[in-house]
Amino acid sequence: MNTIVVGQLQRQFQDYIVSLYQQGYLDNQFTELRKLQDEGSPDFVAEVVSLFFDDCAKLINDMSTSLERPDHVDFKQVDSGVHQLKGSSSSVGARRVKSVCIAFKECCDVQNREGCLRCLQQVDYEYKMLKTKLQDLFNLEQQILQAGGTIPQVSMN
Amino acid sequence: MTREELPNLAESKLTALVVDDNFVNQSIHQKLLARLGITNEVVCNGKEAVDAHCSGRNYDLILMDMDMPIMNGIQATKRLREMGIESKIAGVTTRANEGEKKEFMEAGLNDFQEKPLTISKLLSILHKFDFYVQT
C-alpha cells in the first residue's frame, strides 16, 4: 500500500464530500445512510441512491406525461409524484432535489401548470447533477479501496 | 452514536414488518432494522400487510407508511386492529400535519415518527415499546 497515495485520495474524498454538503447537494440524512454501510453490505449507499435515481427518472417521466396537455392536467397525479419524490429525496439526503419538490408542491396546490413545468425541469436537472456528483464520490471510494486504504468517516458537525 | 455503540437486539428475536411502497424507503428501513439485529420482511402496501397476517404470520413491530396504493396505512392499521392484531405499529410518514397525524394515530398506531427514519428514531420507537432498554 502506498500510504502517500492513499492519504492524498482520502483527503480528496473528504474535501469532495464536504463540498457536496456545503453546496447543498446533500444533508445529514446522507450521513445517516453512510453509517448503515458496513462490511456485510459495502455497496449499500450506492445501491440505495441507485434506487433513488431510478425512482426520479420514472416519477419525472410520469409527471411530464400528466403535465403535457395544457387543457387536461392531472394535478392530483402530479401531486402524488411530487410527494413520492420528496419522500425518497428526503430519505437519501438529496437536499436540493427535496427543496425543488417543496416548491413544486406549492405549484401543484394552486394548479399552476407553468410553475409545475419549471419545477419539473429543475428537479430533472438537480437529480442528474447529484447523480454525477455521487458517481464521482463513489469512484473516489473505489480508488481508495484499490490503493489499500479505508474510506474516511466524515463528520459534518 | 457510533457503530460500536449500537445495541444488538438479535437475542431478543424480535421480528418486524416494513410496509412501504417506495423501494428506497424499503431498503433503508430494512437496513436500519437489520443493523439492530431485528429480523424483518417487507411488503408494498397495506393489503399485502393484511394478507401476511391472514396467512398466519405475526410480527412484534410493524413500520407502517401512510400513503400507499391499493390500501393505505390508515386503512391497513384499522383492518389489522379489527383482526385483533396486537403488534406494535409505528406510523412512519412524511405527512406530518396535525390532522393527518391524528387520523393515523386514531386508526390504531402505537407511535408515529416523521420520515426520514434514522437509527435514533428507530431506537426511540423500540424504547417506547419496551423492546430496547437503554443502559
Automatic annotation (TrEMBL), chain A:
Subcellular location: Cytoplasm, Cytosol; Nucleus
Comment block on domains: Histidine-containing phosphotransfer domain (HPt) contains an active histidine that mediates the phosphotransfer.
Keywords: Cytokinin signaling pathway, Phosphoprotein, Two-component regulatory system
Domain of life (superkingdom): Eukaryota
PANTHER family documented for this protein: HISTIDINE-CONTAINING PHOSPHOTRANSFER PROTEIN 5 (PTHR28242:SF13), PHOSPHORELAY INTERMEDIATE PROTEIN YPD1 (PTHR28242)
Family annotation (SUPFAM superfamilies): Histidine-containing phosphotransfer domain, HPT domain
Protein name per its UniProtKB record: Histidine-containing phosphotransfer protein
Role this protein plays: Functions as a two-component phosphorelay mediators between cytokinin sensor histidine kinases and response regulators (B-type ARRs). Plays an important role in propagating cytokinin signal transduction.
Keyword Phosphoprotein: yes
Modified residues (Phosphohistidine): 83
All copies of domain HPt, residue ranges: 41-148
TrEMBL record, chain B:
Domain Response regulatory: 15-130
Name of one Pfam family that matches: Response_reg
Upper classification of the organism: Eukaryota, Viridiplantae, Streptophyta, Embryophyta, Tracheophyta
Source organism: Camelina sativa
Keywords: Phosphoprotein
SUPFAM superfamilies on file: CheY-like
Protein's UniProt name: Two-component response regulator ARR22-like
Gene: LOC104736668
Modified residues (4-aspartylphosphate): 65
Record Gene3D superfamilies: 3.40.50.2300
Annotated CDD domains: REC_hyHK_CKI1_RcsC-like
Matching InterPro entries: CheY-like_superfamily, Sig_transdc_resp-reg_receiver, ST_Response_Regulator
